[in-house]
Amino acid sequence: MMIIREILVEPQAIAWLPWAVSYFFFIGLAFSCVLVGLLIHKVEKNVQHELMAIAIALSCTIVAPIALTADLHQPSRIVHFYLHLTPWSWMAWGAIFLPLFTMAVIGYFLCLLRQAIPQQYLPQFLHFLYWGKLNIVRWTTIFRMFAFVSALSILVYTTMEVFVVEARPLWHHAWLMPLILFSVLPSACLLCRFLITRFSQQNGTSYFSILTFFSLMICIGGVLGVYFTSEQTALQLTQLWQMSALPLLVVLTLSGLLVGLWFTQPLWLQGLMVLLALALTWLMRWILLIEVQRLAKYNALINPYQLTWHIDGVMGILSVFSLWLCLGIVLWWGFSTALTALHFSGGKQ
Asked: Which chain regions cross the lipid bilayer (predicted)?
């Protein structure tokens, strides 16, 4: 007697929505711009250039937690992390690391303002920075160290938040942290170089191109490392390539960046390179978070996902980027007079 058994399989819903991609995108820009700011301090000792990098980090630091809150759907869940601390949960640690990182970036930014721009050029509401007789150089050094440690903690937290899902081979591997870091570092380098060139009219930032090149090489090496990690990761990377055109876009974007780095770049080409780098950062995070969720986890099906125009889709993405653009305009409006007057060549130490 033969027994026939039917196995019914249902597609699984996508758990992490584009809000999570926005969070990973902006928090990555935030901690990588902090690292670039520290690099500027180490190489150039130029407080004004360092200030530009930290200003970008500040805008991203404000936007990223908002996207994360939207991804949690319920703001009360954030309060729950503090009322019921669970040390075994990386999200609970993130509820501690994120506020500390925000405080570090804000303090870092204010110290650089105090050190780089004279009081008469600052907006009226920032004149409190000149109260008292603080050793501002010492405080800037303290906040540099605080921001560096906080940036590393955020890098570890965002990586482990994905790494702990052992059921996803493309999340649970040793190459995850290098991919997260070196897929966003080119965006931070090229964006900082573009703004420095735009406002200071200086082209002595060739080390940005070198760091961008090595970051792209490590990013490519990380993808190859994931492919050769195991048969499962190789199979799932092949499935990603077959079911989506996004990996091909990543290859084209990487190629465009590598080719563009070899040419002497006028300002318009630097702007194009920034857009390509930001596109690479976004595509890598979209593939990592959204496309990987479409792969089979406990079943034998490709889980369906369709990007909609609702608030959990395109409208949410546009709203977060619009907020970032708005913050950039506010920062420019608040400090354009000071930066124009200084031409990045003065400032009170």
From this structure: 20-39, 51-70, 90-113, 134-155, 175-196, 208-228, 240-264, 271-289, 309-335
